[in-house]
């Protein structure tokens, strides 16, 4: 007996009908018809702009570090029951760094933007954080806020999580799938089709928007988003009943079955897709490094020109050298002159000069004092005192000079 109805085609049709296209991207094997934007979504970046490729969005690149990126849906989710699937991949150096958040919040783009769960202020809704905080190899944690708690000033962010599970998400070489399911009776989170955490105390309201943000430190991680799909649970269709062929019925032509992909072909395609995405990541990083090298080359050229302007020319250097030679010759001449003369004659000349200066000064002072006394008789006592004091001062200076001269070293021929 052989089944010959196209059951898989019906299932694909039912899945396509359930997708909420205004809150999804990447479900048609292509992120966007162009590399400038994603229809129905808005990109935000700090330190760089998130890059759109044919099959993914790079929120934070491998180079440089200290960057942020986010993408926010323009439309709200009106369905009360939904399933959200995030296909992402994270990779970077051996030392872990960075975080990824999936938001379902009110006014997310204006209040949250490209912040993380550690730098966001007050928000209203859900935040699902994926990082290596706390020394773990990786974890997925859920946070709720009604707009009254400011997270960035809270002492312990870990205590605010209502659910979590450990998940080593870095450098897996393949996309990871995180699925959120909201029903009137339960909120559930699964990672790679494995239960992470669930609760019956959380009911998220309709009318909120989805958003994804990523942030990296100096040692960055590259966070890549391959697809984000939001499906309405109530919009699925039932498949038609299975029809069976009679045993005596002539079998249908299966020549086209040889063209169907085998499991090995699917695995090979998956490996090729992974290799292609890695090559695109390497290409992106290489372009960033090339731009940085070009910028450094330009700075080096500017510095070289500035240095050439400050360096002296050959003529200026020759002129400076000739000046130094003349100064050196003059110093040598002075040194030879001093070596060939006796300092005693110079001291005797200085002594005679001081004695003659003292004699002339005394004569001039006496005449000045006499004139002052004759012109100002009432102040005679003051001038007499002044004359005596000055004479004593001169005598003291002379005695000091004689003692100093006597203390000088003697030079014998």
From TrEMBL:
Its main location: membrane. One of its GO terms (molecular function) is D-mannose binding. Residues 250-260 have a biased composition (Polar residues). It is found in: Membrane. The keyword Transmembrane helix applies. Residues 290-337 form a coiled coil. SUPFAM superfamilies: Concanavalin A-like lectins/glucanases (SSF49899). It is a single-pass type I membrane protein. This is L-type lectin-like domain-containing protein. It comes from Elaphomyces granulatus.
């Amino acid at each position: 007996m052989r089944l010959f109805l196209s059951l898989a085609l019906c299932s694909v049709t039912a899945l396509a009908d359930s997708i909420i296209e205004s809150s999804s991207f990447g479900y048609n094997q292509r992120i966007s018809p162009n590399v400038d934007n994603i229809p129905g979504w808005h990109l935000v970046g700090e330190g760089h702009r998130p890059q759109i490729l044919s099959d993914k969005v790079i929120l934070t690149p491998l180079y440089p570090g200290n960057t942020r990126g986010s993408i926010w849906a323009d439309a709200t989710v009106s369905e009360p029951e939904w399933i959200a699937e995030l296909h992402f991949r994270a990779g970077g150096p051996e030392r872990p760094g960075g975080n990824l958040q999936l938001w379902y919040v009110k006014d997310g783009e204006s209040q949250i933007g490209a912040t993380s769960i550690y730098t966001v202020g007050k928000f209203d809704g859900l935040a699902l954080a994926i990082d290596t905080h706390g020394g773990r190899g990786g974890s997925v944690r859920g946070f709720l806020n009604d707009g009254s708690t400011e997270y960035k000033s809270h002492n312990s962010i870990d205590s605010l999580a209502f659910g979590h599970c450990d998940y080593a998400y870095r450098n897996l070489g393949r996309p990871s799938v995180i699925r959120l399911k909201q029903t009137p009776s339960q909120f559930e989170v699964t990672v790679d089709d494995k239960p992470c955490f669930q609760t019956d105390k959380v009911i998220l309201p309709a009318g909120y928007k989805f958003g994804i943000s990523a942030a990296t430190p100096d040692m960055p991680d590259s966070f890549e988003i391959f697809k984000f799909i939001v499906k309405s649970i109530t919009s699925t269709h039932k498949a038609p009943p299975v029809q069976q062929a009679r045993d005596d019925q002539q079998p249908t032509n299966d020549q086209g079955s040889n063209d169907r992909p085998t499991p090995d072909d699917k695995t090979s395609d998956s490996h090729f897709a992974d290799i292609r995405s890695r090559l695109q990541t390497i290409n992106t990083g290489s372009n960033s490094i090339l731009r940085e090298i070009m910028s450094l080359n330009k700075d080096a050229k500017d510095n070289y020109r500035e240095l050439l302007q400050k360096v002296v020319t050959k003529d200026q250097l020759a002129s400076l050298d000739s000046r130094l030679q003349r100064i050196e010759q003059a110093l040598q001449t002075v040194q030879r002159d001093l070596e060939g003369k006796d300092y005693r004659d110079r001291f005797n000349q200085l002594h005679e000069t001081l004695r003659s200066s003292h004699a002339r000064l005394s004569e001039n002072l006496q005449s000045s004092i006499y004139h002052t006394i004759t012109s100002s008789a009432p102040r005679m006592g003051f001038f007499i005192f002044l004359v005596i004091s000055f004479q004593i001062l001169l005598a003291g200076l002379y005695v000091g000079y004689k003692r100093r001269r006597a203390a000088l070293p003697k030079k014998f021929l």
